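Predict the assembly for these two chains.
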Amino acid sequence: MTSSVRVRFAPSPTGYFHIGGARTALFNWLYAKHTQGTFVLRIEDTDTERNTKESLNSLLSNLRWLGLDWDEGPDVGGPYGPYFQSERNEVYQRYLEQLRQAGCVYEKEGAIWLKVSGATQTLDDLIHGPVQRLEEKDFVIYRSNGTPVFHFVNVVDDIDMHITHVIRGEDHLSNTNKHLELYRAFGVTPPKFAHIPLILKTSGPGKMSKRDSGSLVEEYRQKYFLPEGIINYLSLLGWSPKNDREIMPIAEIIAAFDLKDVNNTNARFDEKKLMFINAEHVKNLSPEAFYQQGVIVLKETGHENAIHDTNRLKAIFAIVQEKLRSFEELPHFIEYFFDESYPFEPEAFKKIEKYQPKQRLLELKEKLSALTNFSEENIEACIHTLSETNQIPTGHYIHPLRFAVSGRSVGPSLYHMLPILGQSTVLARIQRCLDTQLS
RNA sequence: GUCCUGUUCGUCUAGAGGUUAGGACAUCGGGUUUUCAUCCCGGCAACAGGAGUUCGAUUCUCCUACGGGACGCCA
């Protein structure tokens, strides 16, 4: 760490990790990386009724999956731990005692209340500018059951952990006055605040919530989205590098990110754009990275039979990468390379009927079987010759042939996929098509 | 209801006191004499409304409308 910036992400593990939380974590992480500061993860688990172990595991796991690693927090420790609020009671008692000594609190109906100043507080928000508001009523900081409430622990921990910048959702903007009252009571200069705009539902009113479809990080992980794609999309919700750049590697985002460029308007979540950005990242993957991920996806989706021949698989990936939008599509997209009993799709058949497919395939079968070197160039030359000799467009050969060898109307470049399948397989597939579809 | 906050194409955004208001997604159309979910080209599409300041405002100020948030012994 070469700067004194200390930021924190302070989630409450009460459900699955959602996009809004991921975006808040991301902005904190980006700012820490950009300033070479420290990113602290603090778990706000004081609500024993709603916190669950599963939620915590999901949170940590998905944060790591996204690559949002923390410098201090659960599992990694740090100088200001513990990082679970449920384990910090002594700290809170100590700070409460301080307020007692200062005469800032009183007890009423078993709970402990903070006396507010009665003065208008001005918050100099890094994103919204000066915000003035009066906190007029005293509020509870310790419940009658002896446990501290959010506002209190949040401020105490930020003080105790030396947080310099509080980057959180705009839904906390109104809470900040309570926090400012607490800082005043403690006699501590507040950190800088940056309230980032909220993410709204794709359609309809209100902010995005865990209940909305597409709102859980877990969903994208299960669909094999690339973490860097999600990070890239999320970074563009409320922030912009202001140079028309959109598809960026994470290093570029870190270098460009700054709180002063975060805007103050809520953004609507757009899954289509997320898809697009993910697809761009899939295309930009190195062959090695694509292979690694491809193998994982094939294994997890029950296609172990596809991964045995590494060289063949790499050849298939090479002609398929540019066509894929997400790894979720991979297994289905390449299935027929590994299965001689692939189905012939009726919709695909409809598209080739007009080309007199039986005749075309018989011609192709004869010419292709005569090739001594089943190369992409020779296949292409062969089809062109056929086309010229019979005065028939090449498409009339290509479409039925693709249908015959894959059962589909779409797929990777035909000239490139045939050599991978191999001459005998291609001829056998043409024959099967002739026998079962065109007899 | 009270308080806070915001308002550029359908969506994410750039922008400047005087611009043909730019880019991207989506969408529509065309092309790549091989499909397309790739690639290329093109079209459609925005400064919420009203006052004020100003030679001039979409850009600054105010009001209205609309949006979002907060008002718990939840976080």
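The longest strand of chain A covers residues 120-125. The mean pLDDT of chain A is 93.
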